[in-house]
Amino acid sequence: MTNGATIFTKLDLRSAYNLIRIREGDEWKSAFITAQGHYEYLVMPYGLANSPSVFQAFMDEIFRDMRDRFLNVYIDGILIYSQSLSEHFQHIATVLAQLRQHRLYAKAKQCEFHRTSLTFLGCAISPGKISINPEKVTAVMDWPTLVTIKDLKIPRVF
After folding, report:
1. Residue 156: its pLDDT value, please?
2. What does each C-alpha distance from 25 to 31, 46, 81, 110 come to in angstroms?
3. Distance in Å from the first CA to the final CA of the chain
4. Given 57, 92, 103, 144, which residue has the most CB atoms within 10 angstroms?
5. pLDDT computed for residue 1 by the predictor
6. What is the structure's pLDDT at 85?
């Protein structure tokens, strides 16, 4: 997945779905009525059944030349990986140029640049190693032993 990379950057896009324009003429399909009137979305709202797959297809298309070479993307999360710092600067510049061209923006507070390890999509990523986030494993391992049927009904939160 990371091709021997030693340096990683993670980007998280802001308002991702709202950046996809609904095809002109199809706005009526997103219509809703309130006491204040009739409204139709012009951009793809969160909550539509196909929003994730439409956005993923969009991301796959705009990053098709970079995917699996130095970039992995899952919906609004982007992982950039490189073998050297100079190469990493080039990769980041290429990705940011592509984002700018398509008017996509990242949440600065959610981004991590030039890291030797980071967490992406619940996985701990470091040179030569991808593993489950240790915090998630600890949460499951610390569960109390279930003894009664009532214990099974208690919701467990990660």
Report:
1. 62
2. 12, 19, 40, 35
3. 26
4. 92
5. 67
6. 95
Give the residue carrying structure tokens 């032993």.
145
Residue 2 has what DSSP assignment? Answer: -
Query: How far is residue 114's CA from residue 135's CA, in Å, rounded to a whole number?
Result: 22
What values do phi and psi take at 57, rounded to 5?
-60, -40
Q: State how far the Cα of 158 lies from the Cα of 151, in Å rounded to an integer.
A: 16
Give 93's Cβ-side CA count (13 Å radius): 6
pLDDT at residue number 140:
75
DSSP codes of every residue in 26-66:
-GGGG-EEETTEEE--SBPPTT-TTHHHHHHHHHHHHTTTT
Please identify which residue in the block is written with the tokens 């049927």.
Answer: 149
Each residue of 1-59: pLDDT tens digit?
A: 677 889 999 999 988 888 888 899 999 998 999 999 999 999 988 888 888 898 999 99
Phi, psi at 96, each rounded to 5°: -65, -35
Cβ neighbour number for residue 154 with a 10 Å cutoff: 9
Amino acid (one-letter) located at 22: I
The model's pTM: 0.78
